[in-house]
Amino acid sequence: MIGDRFDEAFVWAHDRHRDQRRKTSNTPYITHLMVVASLAIDDAANDPALVDMVEEIAIAALLHDVVEDTDTTPDDVAQRFGLVVAEIVEGCSDTDIWPKPPWGERKEAYLLHLRSASSPTLCVALADKRHNATDILADLRSLGPSVWDRFNAGPDQQKWFHEELASVFGERRPGNAADDYSRTVRELVAVIDAQRR
Fold first, then answer.
1. What is the C-alpha radius of gyration for the chain, rounded to an integer number of angstroms?
2. What residues are annotated to the active site?
3. What is the DSSP string of 155-178?
4. CA distance readout (Å), 71 to 13, 64, 68, 83
5. What torsion, rounded to 10 degrees, do the Cα atoms 85, 90, 96, 102 define?
6. pLDDT tens digit string along 51-101?
7. Distance between CA 131 and CA 27 in Å, rounded?
8. CA nearest 63: which of 101, 25, 99, 32?
9. Structural domain that includes position 16
10. What is the pLDDT of residue 176?
11. CB-count burial class (<10 Å; 0-12, 13-18, 19+) for 18
C-alpha cells in the first residue's frame, strides 16, 4: 500500500522544510507533515473511492505545503513523484506566487477552489485543516489570545475561515474526518468567543 516512494517523500519534505517551525510553537515543521499524512492515510484507507490511491495521498500529504511555503514548484513535485501527487499538492496550495497575496484574498480563492477540488485533494486539505485547528485550539487554551500575534489574521478572520472550511468539507467530503473537524471548529469558536468576555 505504501512503499519506498513515501520514504523518499519524507526525506525530501524534511529537507525542504528543514529550517521551518510551526506558527503556534517551536516545533519542527516536519511534525505537522507527519500528522497530516497520518490523518490523510486513515481517511483514504477507509474510503472505497480512495483506497487505491493511499500511497499518492500519503505522499501528497507529506508535500502539501512544499509549493506554498518553499521555492519548490509543482513541476519539481511532478518530476519526483508523478503528476497525480503534484496535482494534489497544487490543489492544497493557496498560492504559488511570491510574495504571497493578502491573506483574505488567498483564503477566498482557496475556498472557491475547494468547492470543485478532487476527492484526493479534499482528503489531504481536510487532514491539513484538522491539524491546524487542533493546534490553534490547544494553544489558545494554554496561552490565551496572544497566540494570534503569530498569525497573519486575527480571531475573527480565523473563525470565518474555519467555519467556511467546515461547511465546504461537510458538503464535499462528508464522513468521520469532516465531522471531527466540525467539532474542533465549534470548540475553537467557543474558546475565541469566551476569551473576549
1. 16
2. 68-69
3. HHHHHHHHHHHHHHHHHHS-SHHH
4. 12, 13, 8, 18
5. -140
6. 999 999 999 999 999 998 898 999 999 999 999 999 999 999 887 676 778
7. 14
8. 32
9. 4-196
10. 97
11. exposed
Per the DSSP assignment, residues forming a β-bridge with 28 are 21
Residue 167 has a pLDDT of 98
CA angle 119, 117, 22 (to 5 degrees): 90
Give the residue ranges of the chain where pLDDT is below 50: none
pLDDT for res 66: 94
Report residue 55 as a C-alpha cell. Answer: 500511497
CATH of the domain at 108: 1.10.3210.10
Which strand (E) or helix (H) includes residue 188?
A: helix 176-196
Question: Is there a contact between 56 and 37 (Cβ–Cβ < 8 Å)?
Answer: no
Hey, what's the cell of 129? Answer: 485543516
Look up the pTM and report it. Answer: 0.95
Domain count for the chain, please give it: 1
State the pLDDT at residue 24: 63
In this prediction, residue 21 carries a pLDDT of 82
DSSP label of 115: T
